[in-house]
Prior knowledge:
Blueprint: H1 2-15, E1 23-32, H2 56-67, E2 89-91, E3 99-109, E4 114-122, H3 125-143, E5 149-151, H4 159-167, E6 171-173, E7 193-195, E8 200-202, E9 208-216, E10 220-224, H5 227-231, H6 236-239, E11 247-251, H7 254-263, H8 267-275, H9 277-288, H10 299-324, H11 327-335
Parallel strand pairs: 1-5, 5-6
Antiparallel strand pairs: 1-3, 2-3, 3-4, 7-8, 8-9, 9-10, 10-11
Amino acid sequence: MFRHLFERIVTACMAAGLVKGEGFAVDASVMEANASRYHGKAPDEIVWAESKRQTRAVKEYLAGLGAETEHNPDRKPPKVISPSDPCSAWTAKANKRVQFGYGLNYLIDIENAVIVDVEATPARTYDEVAATKSMIERTDKRFGLKPKHLAADTAYGTGKFLGWLMGAGITPHIPVWDKSTREDGTLSRSDFQWDKRRGVYVCPNNKVLHTSGTVHDGRTLLYRASKLDCDTCPLKARCCPGQLARKIPRDVHEDARDMARRLMGSKAFVKSRDERKRVEMRFAHLKIQHGFERMRLRGLSGARDEFHLAAIVQNLKTLALRALGPPAALLSASFA
């Protein structure tokens, strides 16, 4: 019911000309779960069969465990969970205080900051990025809206997500999540030249690094130098002092990452970076003006209901202000 109402209001915003459909922005904000941060336990310490554990939130959590079909290397098992709301995530995001929380995910049209989709997830970066795919696909299906570009922060700048955006025909205005720069004074990956035609890396000493083609962890190719080349190289002490030969990891979606890097210096990217603040203002408005910082319901379904209600209220206010004008203007008009 809440989803249906939310979508009707988005349709009304579109009819009023408030949704342009060219640029979207996405972000997530942590909302504290209705669970004590002092009562967290390791998953194997909790006996779910106890009568006091037979709640809707626990049943949702156990049903979710049963629905998992394969192991995902990107998703790390939680070290601490809440016995009363196990779907929430143990997190130190947002205000840096460790707590159990849910991620409120907003996808907005940047023209008037209309929320075109909303999703509830545990407060984990992996789940928030995955939710963005669902929101973009659902917005296209429900409203026929597909953005030309998407603005987001570095948390969304993974090779996998950037590759998905490129495949969907959406230009990423997203800083690349890159940890390849070394801090110990040795040569970083950026010191090696990528030869796209040959599909190899070339080191500063003009030697070639090849790959076997094996994909590690489902996302990385390793390019290796010859031990014979490294043994006689004058740069070995600065390149691989603790290794027999140098290895360079390359994301299978590195082409998409390179494209995103090139876009980072463009005027369009700078403009999107500024416009992305509009989704952050949505969260600030919700927490400061509406006092919504802590959940009242438990479980993912409870979070989903509360987040849909929040988005409904904010879109209604936007529709009223844009279509009718601010309250002061309406009052003056009525007296006139």
